[in-house]
């Protein structure tokens, strides 16, 4: 008999706390599947966010540290500079990365920090009850945009991949979704590519994942999945935004410790 | 070998000699020479220096580096130290070691870049949110600065707690002779908590989120017991001409240097004035003060602030002695002669108060 489905060993035997139809659970599972398939469970160090993903350590059988809200990329930077041989990634929501932690994410990307960010874009602050996120669409109703997001008052939805793509230190940026089986498979590939980018010492990698939050979108799980295709991707087009090849920088002959694992790279 | 160095540079060299491998900083006067020294030195040694995008990022890089097992340090001055408080609270909650340097300046707000002692409350009361403390070391000379740095790294590792070195713009920027000959790199501690990847062991987690209030309370009591141990074991202070003193000046850091000058003058005039200089601002040398109060009736607190440590002196003395105060806030640095005049006035007033009381008894 052929095994077609198994619980990944890196996934603890615990119940996810996520709401029904939430994308976080799928993304959690994809991460451990990729780690397991790449044989990286023993090397991986994950930085968990403040947000619905904050209890990752209850599910992942790998080393995990919690960060303060938004500081994931800075904490990951600190870890990576000590342990360049480990695979270091942060898991961050859209409030976490694109509001309070914009500076930390942006500058980690700009330094070409050799880390990976798994960026969960669900268009709202899930954990705190569905307030507006920087990624909330115009006219989208949230608890803090009760009549819909108005750009005159609350600005515009932020496209993280496109913004980060302008930074020379960002090596690999891709936007995917987890609302359909095919999209889930693509997301898994993107995560694997981002981790490989880090293993190859190419610098900063980020996968932005459009993820349903049915509870705060006030939709059924299936409608939430359709809404991603029908509405969300118009603002957040799927695909690879950047696939650079070489880390760039100013210093010559930097060591792995100073550069954080882009090993034996001579920056020009 | 003795050499002439600024406090900021000497601090940097002492950190390197103490085994600091990771430094994260953001420019702010009057500590820039330290960040610049680390940029050069860490680069030469192939160690890690990052000029971060903010003090918030720097302290969180420190947190990551500490979680991964490194001896990590950051430095700043008042406005930047305020930004670091978030990370310091997390370091304390996570029980991670780190050394944070505050080369203090005049405040509040942007304030100025002159030396000041107005960050005493922020330093000694935890500083960030939640129920925690950090050891605060307050050296009074460039040489002493180099001596507290290895101690700082050692105590941070020993207690798995962030630790503050509190200096000021004068200490940071003035040059004094120093030698590093006696500086021994503190021993490495076993760190069974650090994140290295769960290769040949069960996975580890570091987090401060504790939803269960009973467990959160347990964690807070655990931290509290650790702080009690620090209070028992880590109090450090210096006394100067205190044995026969009728009035004891309590001052720290550069304030104590000024006070020493004032006390020498007062002694020349025959006034029995001595000094108690807390080296650890937290834990505070409360016991030493109470012990002194058995024979000394008057304590004179001098600070370059509008009065912060004076609260701790009053708490320590529990009404057992009179507490006098003189402060200069805002980055003003008084001369010893100014302080000596004020102390002398209080000294004579205390004497006449005591003789008046004796009269009344008769
Ligand atoms: C400094 C700070 N501010 C606010 C919060 C409260 N908080 C926790 S999670 C969160 C937002 C989470 O939203 P997002 O990052 O989009 O993650 P999601 O829950 O949607 O996955 C906020 C505001 C906090 N923990 N810390
Ligand atoms: S609030 Fe939204 S993001 Fe959070 S667990 Fe529920 S569905 Fe998922
Ligand atoms: Mg969100």
Describe the structure.
The complex is a heterodimer of chains A (268) and B (362). In chain A, the strands form two sheets. In chain A, strands 2-1-3-4-8-7-9 form a seven-stranded mixed β-sheet, sandwiched between helices. In chain A, strands 5-6 form a two-stranded antiparallel sheet. In chain A, helix 3 (94-100) crosses helix 4 (102-110). With 268 residues, chain A is of the alpha/beta class. Chain A is globular and about 50 Å long. Helix content of chain A is 35%, strand content 17%. Chain A has helices at residues 23-37, 72-82, 94-100, 102-110, 151-154, 160-165, 181-199, 214-217, 221-235, 256-259; strands at 44-48, 63-66, 87-93, 116-121, 124-125, 131-132, 170-177, 204-210, 239-243. Chain A has a single domain, classed as Thiamin diphosphate (ThDP)-binding fold, Pyr/PP domains (Rossmann fold). Mean pLDDT of chain A is 93; it is low at 248-255 and 260-268. By secondary structure, chain B is α/β, with parallel strands linked by helices. Chain B folds into two domains: 2-233, Rossmann fold (3-Layer(aba) Sandwich), CATH 3.40.50.970; 237-361, Rossmann fold, CATH 3.40.50. Helix content of chain B is 45%, strand content 19%. Chain B has helices spanning 7-17, 32-45, 55-67, 78-94, 120-124, 142-159, 169-173, 213-233, 253-268, 286-292, 309-317, 336-361; strands spanning 3-6, 22-25, 48-51, 72-76, 98-104, 135-137, 162-168, 175-178, 205-206, 237-240, 247-250, 273-278, 280-282, 298-303, 322-327. In chain B, the strands form three sheets. Chain B has a seven-stranded mixed β-sheet with strand order 3-2-4-5-7-6-13, sandwiched between helices. Chain B has a five-stranded mixed β-sheet with strand order 10-12-11-14-15, with helices on both faces. In chain B, strands 1-8 form a two-stranded antiparallel sheet. In chain B, strand 4, helix 4 and strand 5 (98-104) form a beta-alpha-beta unit. Chain B is globular, with a radius of gyration of 21 Å. The mean pLDDT of chain B is 97. Classes of the chains: A alpha/beta (268), B alpha/beta (362). At the A-B interface, strand 1, strand 2, helix 2 and helix 4 of A face strand 3, helix 3, helix 4 and strand 9 of B. The structure holds thiamine diphosphate, iron/sulfur cluster (SF4) and magnesium ion. Thiamine diphosphate (TPP) binds next to helix 3 and strand 5 of chain A.
